[in-house]
Amino acid sequence: MNDTQENPVSPYLRLDRMPSIWCPGCGIGTSVNCFARAITQSKIDVNKLSIVSGIGCTGRVSGYLNFDSFHTTHGRPIAFATGLKLANPELHVVVYSGEGDLIAIGGNHFIHAARRNVDILVVCVNNFVYGMTGGQVSPTSPSPASFTTAPYGQFEEPFNLPYLADSCGAVYVARWTTFHVRQLAKSMREALTKKGFRFIEIIAPCPTLYLRRNKLGDGLDAMKYYHEKSVVKNDANTRDLKIDFESEITVGTFVNRDRPTFLEAMNQRFATALGNKYQPYPVGPNHGQKSQSQTQEVA
Amino acid sequence: MPADPLNVLTGKHYLDGNHAACEGALAAGCRFAAGYPITPSTEIVERVAGRFPHLGGIFIQMEDEIAASIAIQGAVWAGKKAMTVTSGPGFSLMMEHIGLAAITETPCVFFNVQRGGPSTGLPTLPGQADMMQARWGSHGDYEIIALSPQSPQECFNLAVDAFNLAEQWRVPVLVMMDECVGHMTERVIIPKAETIEVTERRWTKKKPSDYKPFEPGPDLVPDMAKAGDGYHLFVTGLTHDERGYPVMNWQAQEKLVHRLVDKIRLSADKIVRFEEEDIEGADVVVVSYGITARVARRGAELARQKGVKVGMLRLVVVWPFPEKRILELASKVQAFVVPEMNYGQMVLEVERAAKGKTNVVCVPHGGGEVHDPEVIADAIIRAAKRLS
Questions:
Q1: Which domains does chain B have, with CATH numbers?
Q2: For residue A292, what are the contacts with CB-CB under 8 A and spacing of at least 6?
Q3: Does B74 sit within 8 Å of A87, measured CB to CB?
């Protein structure tokens, strides 16, 4: 018997591009592993799956995943994904990028896509630092951690990402660390087949530029920290989820609700305004319950 | 192939250039538009927002021009024909994504209804001062195609051509209108759908296993596939190889960027388009484009009344520039006179192409209104006298 087996996630990776650019101990690869497992379990058609990234270490994710991969410009993957999804609603569109890309330079697109309830999943790896450019302060960096552009310590208030997503109208909001691989994969699977603007924040270590500079140890020490200081509080009030330097990290699924997506709202409005003349625009694959009941009616 | 009759509002209309441009885009098969309100371009997206629900298209007003200029590229990779519409300040914000469209060879159309600049400038008044920005505005080396209509009718015609050129060459195509052309209302004849030629996307016929998304054909343009068809595309703004994979070295840079530039430069003769009037035996040739070409025609008439032999060369395709024709004429005429609503942009290109073989006279105007035809006539007469 052959004792070597193919890794179940291999078909979802561009193995001809390995090894990746990510440093030892980096959390991005762990999150990608969880994502690939979530894909296997979700049973979605991988030929209909597009991954869109911006720029940065996490921005490289799209290029290592073997789906339709779009590596766009800094901060703009959500705007690209909006066009991709609206032009072909049959696609599953996942934006996978870092907090600098999505929340600093791309913050405007983030809040508006959430407001519109564009039917995309946004996965944000939050490692509190600009890694690709060498360790600069980010919009989630906690005070008083030190960065190359905040050498005397960060003093700005960091963003609480679940609160931001929640208040802008996201229908699904979760946070896990890269220690919580099973919970993260499960959350990703759940989010992949839900419709609307879905947001998962992944707290991940950057050993090279964040942990080392702030004397927080290595990747393994980060896992111990996540293990000891993470508290699962599903349905927690997103106001209370701020992450301070070396503080407790609240994880869990905080928001899981439904409201009409951009295309559903558009169809409804146009049908009301234009009457029978209006041919409804297709709305997409995650509207499973509705299409199931329609099938039953036909049967 | 001929246009889909559903998209074509065949008939005689009384339209301004912005509305006509919208109808041209629809006739060409545009099915996705993203924009952000900005004077004097907004009527194009206002019309599209009203028309698309009847045609199965999607318009979205994005949060800014940066978003609009990349949302259209997402839509293109999903298989649609797409456009965005803006004016000066918005055009500045879109520069990054003209570069993205250039390196990822994403066929898409940008309308810029030019106003006076710099910065907020003259929002409601015309300018032609974005012509060099259209050519060079994004960082790095790349080529685009830019068109300049002189009338509402031509806004319709060139909108169709813009989509066709984008699909044929897989470049961003820029329709460089101006406030006058955008807001002037004239008769626009929209022909029958079967007479409007529409270029379809260059869909690959290869199976996913044999397909490389950036492997060029004989004309240096690769065939396309779209998301969702099992090709597992890899599209990146990084320098990439034929598979689309990033490659960070000078050899990959040379191979990719040289091709991006050459696919337009080596085929410039096929793309260049201009109109000439009274060139034969002319002493002075006026080179102009957009609304200024119509004002210059009056200037040329006035100069002709004073006995000057004047010809006209009107740029229809502005980029690539008709440098061969300018060089040919340079050894025959005594001067080129170049009026434009800026302080000297396309005139630099005329000078470059003329290679010192004749005089080149700039007739600048800061924008805000069109030239006085008398000023153009004076420039023509002085140019003719100086050399007689």
A1: 5-195 (3.40.50.970), 276-386 (3.40.50.920)
A2: none
A3: yes
